[in-house]
């Protein structure tokens, strides 16, 4: 089981709506169960530098089946995942905004959002994830 393009479009639409509601343009990425990019949107005015971050947040959430916010909390000095951001050729993002997406108890993909504060990214990612 994995997300498909129809799923990705629904996730992105919900995330875009939330980003519009809070007035913060975002980059929104959706990956499948293998961590491969299905779709990405850069809203008008969203930072170019956040394109890569959003894609890698989605990858990270799927690669470890954990929200990037939670991974970030556990990767601080003296925590169990300290240094994890250096793994996977530097693709690992430990900022809020990446959320794994499950169906029937199995992770089938993830959404990654970047372009605002950590709290804004997380809020928009949660809205996207809730679309399914």
UniProtKB/TrEMBL annotation:
A Pfam family: HbpS-like
Protein name stated in the entry: Heme-binding protein
Protein's organism: Arthrobacter ginkgonis
């Amino acid at each position: 089981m994995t997300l498909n393009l129809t799923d990705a479009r629904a996730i992105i639409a919900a995330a875009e709506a939330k980003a519009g509601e809070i007035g913060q343009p975002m980059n929104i990425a959706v990956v499948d169960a293998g961590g491969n990019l299905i779709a990405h949107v850069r809203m008008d005015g969203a930072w170019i530098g956040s394109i890569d971050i959003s894609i890698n947040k989605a990858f990270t959430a799927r690669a470890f089946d954990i929200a990037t916010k939670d991974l970030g909390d556990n990767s601080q000095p003296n925590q169990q995942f300290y240094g994890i951001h250096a793994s996977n050729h530097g693709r690992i993002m430990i900022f809020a905004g990446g959320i794994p997406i499950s169906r029937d108890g199995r992770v089938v993909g993830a959404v990654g959002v970047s372009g605002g504060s950590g709290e804004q990214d997380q809020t928009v990612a949660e809205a996207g994830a809730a679309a399914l």
